[in-house]
Amino acid sequence: MKTALLSLFAVWLGLAGAFSSQTEPAKPQPKMEPVEVGNPERIEIQPPQILLGSPLQKIQIVVSGFYANGVVQDLTRVATLSAEAPGVVKIENALVSPLANGSTEIRVKAGGREHKLPVKVTRQETPEKVSFLYGTLAALSKNGCNSGGCHGAPSGKGGFALSMVAFDPEADKITLTRDFYNRRINPPDPESSLVLRKPLMEVAHRGGLRLQKNEDSYRLLVDWIAQGCTFDDDKAPRLVGIRVDPSARRTFEWPAHTQQLRVTASFNDGSERDVTRLAMYSSSEEALASVSETGLVVASGRGQVGISVRFLDNVETCYFTFVRKIEGFTWQAPTPANYVDDAVFAKLKLLQYQPSETCSDAEFLRRVFVDVTGLLPKVEETMAFLADTSPNKRAAIIDDLLSRPAFARFWAFKWGDLLRISPATLKEPGTHKYNAWIIKAWEENLPYDAFARTLLTAQGSSLDNPPANFFRTTTNTSEATEMAAQIFLGSRVQCAKCHNHPFEKWTQDNYYGLGAFFERVQRKKGLRPDELVIYSSRRGEITQPRTGKKMPPWAPGAGELQLPQEADRLDAFAAWLTAPENPYFARVEVNRLWWQLMGRGIVEPIDDFRESNPPSNPELLDALSRDFVTHHFDRKHVLRAILNSRTYQASSRPNASNKEDEKNFSHARQQMLTAEQLLDAVCQVTGQPEKFGNLPLGTPATQLPSPQPNNAFLVAFGQPSRQSSCACERQSQPSLTQALQLSNSQTVENRLKNGGGQFVQSLVQQTKSDDEIIEKLYLAALCRRPKEIELQRAKQFIAARPDRGTSLEDVAWSILNLREFVFRH
Amino acid sequence: MTLPPHTRLVLSSLGLCLSGLTSAHAASPAVSFRQQIAPLLLQQCQTCHGPTEQKGGYRLDTFDFLSRKDDDGDPALVPGKPELSDLYRLLVTTEADERMPKKAAPLAPELTELVKRWIAEGARFDGDDKTASLVEIIPPQTHPKAPEAYTLPVPVTALAFSPDGSELTASGFRELTVWSPEDGQLLRRISNVAPRTFQIVYGTDGASIAVASGAPGEFGEVRVYQPKTGEMLRQIVSAADAVLDVKISPDGRWIATGGADHYVSIFDFPTGARRHRLAAHSDAVTSVAISQDSKQVASVSIDRAAKVFDIQTGKLVAIYRDHQSPLYSVAFAPDGKQMMTAGYDKSMHQWNIADAKKQRELALEGNVLRMQVSGDQIYFGGSGKKIGQASVAELKTTRTLTSIEDWVYALAIHAPTRRLAVGGYDGTITVWNMEDGKQVAHFSAAPGYKDKAAVIFAR
Known about the structure:
The structure holds 2 protein chains of 2 kinds. Chain A contains 27 helices and 29 strands. Chain A is an alpha+beta fold.
């Protein structure tokens, strides 16, 4: 479970960074361009009126300008706001705070337009009683006190443990007031409370400076303590949701690149409250746009960003696209081949990235072979393809490859990673039978809904019914729930096991609600060796450990499912999951198919679908998903659409316009071959296969039924041990060991030398001249003929040495160490 | 806002220095390490450069450590040369990743100037013992006055009966309050006390009370007062964090303390001389106890461990680690052979000192914060909002006193008058007659607090 643990740990660390950097002294302010106000057709003010009913309330005003050409921009930071009557309100950076009871109007001027906003201030004489749930806990959350890296960690910090982002108010109550002899608060002298003096750094604080006296958080905490640390009673209003303005997706054209947000919380008594200064903000891509602690979004690049707004356990995400006219940019693109290109090019055109030209035949052939079959083409196949002059030759080879056995085996191998197929859990017979079943599914092109349904509902002996091994890789409800969610919903729900998900709407209740589907999965030993019987019991309920409540089955978007007691819950889950209207099922799979061919998901990482991690091109994801559903979950159909697109066939060489683009698919990605692909490539070029255990000689590494932990080459290049369903288990970091494996290992060296010069002999036998040998090496390894200079250098090298055989080996060695060989491009 | 005494000291002496500077530089009094530098270092630096952590291999919790070199071999202190002394240089450097204190705003220029002047003047040590910790050499402070009338109740965290049972002394805010246990009348108030008091014990002669107190996270102290006049007689302990418990041995020879600074200390009570300072725990020491024969001292801690030491030698006698949660309470059985310990794991353990093996366990409904043995019975309270009574011999519940509204923070027993008093988070004191289990009085221990009737109930 090391990888799973590591990824969890990364989430913890990430959390600390994302939501708690408010008062770090070093955080630089992003640069802001002056607003070009121009002549808006109309301006719009949010909110339409200002009602301030307590001394603690503040209201953020947001001013938007709408222009004749359909463009919109945020005018908040340039609008002039002035109150007609003095002394009623104070306005600072479009934030209105009350001064005294009274009524007035705020005059809002921007771009030659003017609006008046009615203002009413009441009840300033009555101190507002601070709500523990929505004041105190919000303040502690806002300042990062209860973030995962600080006191929200499972065991807290410095003996002070809060629940992460206040998911457990009951526990926080005790911790803040009763625990440790009331150590942290001091009502008779509120400002001397440790819970304030520490983050103010008046008392040494490991966590550093986290609070300033001029922040709303400080005032709330002081008042709450001064009022005797009371809690919301049963009649107090409860939060029902938050709303973020602007609510519609906006596209900004440079120099417009900022947006002030406004967050409103609504309560079950119908009341509303501005919580802009208490909400927490995070950007899905800091490099593209950052968001300040006061909700000001500032973009520095081009593209789409999701800004997540959190107020306690409510999370909403709003999306902005930032575009910029590039000097001298004229749209030039290959003719779109299909809807894939339509969606990708539309986005690229909007963002003004010029797609790269279509790749060469040689590049295409090597890429499509490696991506679809895991293997390099044979020299004859390459020569035939390069010589072929028919205009449809690319489409033809795609169809050819998709119907080869190597395709089914390679994609079954990919699913082996995902389903964690390994003898460690499934034993040898289970591993082989399960793998064989998946290969068959790919060979028959079993529709994906049937594929998923079969896995989820397979019962009986793991030997007689291979898909029953699906649940065999898990030992309990949690593992089964997490695996199913990760594979089929693209969701990492693990976080919600112990606390509400830090970035998503997933609550702890949801986790156990989803778990209710898998609570009844039973695993018992069969009579035969290595046999496990999987079946679904008709009883058994799951308990939410924090509340002690029995949780009914719950599915995202569908809510609680009313099922008869005797219903098979796995059937119910599979039926909900594979319904054509399910918003997750098709998207997650097409995104995975896309990622496997393009090297980057439209949603990335592919198992982290959440509102706060938006797709880089939603229209593309929608189009693929629609096509997939319309074609009855035919995965080959979607693969074919992607492979035939200009987008897939784009060159991996970026042009001047798109070299900064990493996520809009303007050019193909160059990435290192996987461990298995690389080993197969070495075997293919040298003509000497690798022997794996008892498997027949010639079994490619990309078709292995299970990992080979003893193979140093595969391990060095990141072969996963299949302990996690996360694609991140496959390591893709370059390392020194890898360089040594290629330059100096037995895997490569023995193939070139120790076989008694077999490799070179085979070359010499078949061909005569150096020219021919070198050309064949290039075709085998790189799917292209050597350039003149490459040919000449190789020939000079051979000519200058006495032993032709050794020199040929050295030439081959140098080709195997080329970046062009090691990479897919 | 209220500054802790140390800061106040720094600022007030600073006023002195600045006025001195403006008039005549030569005439300004020398900067005092004890009075001006030590409080500053204690408050700003010691968390990362002290006994628990030594960032950069450097610590400054004593003058001796302070003047040593750090990991880089750079001198921290070059008397007469502030610019060469890292102690000063790193406070004012413009290199953001070098500047101290880390992750915080730079110190005010007045404060860095003070350090600079002290080093320029020769970095003199004006104390007696260069190896004494900073807290110990800072001179005792006069604490600010308590509020005349309380606007809110404050939790009652300590209670003690006078030897004759006629008076009940309770913790207040910056004071002790003395009450009549029979009717809840306020008898008098004792001032010059730290903001919070965690334990009050009478000396064997009844002519002195020892008070464990402090301001959480800032300082701790044990002071001895004359109970009738309220005069402060002496200060025994100065610590870097609140002192949470103090006990005087039955023979009057020893006084033992434990505190949030993780230390257990043993002093000679008549002279106040420290005999042992035991780094016994890895977290706050919440309670200490001394055996009936005055030969052993026991401690429990948030670190979940319970320990027993020889009071004379300070040597470890037993460690008990069977608890699953922070411990708050410890008591010796009357025979001195067994310990009772309890805390947040809702279970009282009784175990042998000889082999540290658990003998009995009593499952409880809530956390236990306080326990006290009286005769052959043990009384205890905590989050369960009731007082339990169990026989020590069998560790079986014999009686439960209920009707407490919130967590129990203090418990005192006066056996001769058969009175048991309990103080709570809600700021009330409840007195029972242990004979019939009936309430004698129930009152708010906040002088002048008007929201509720001060005396809620008196029989």
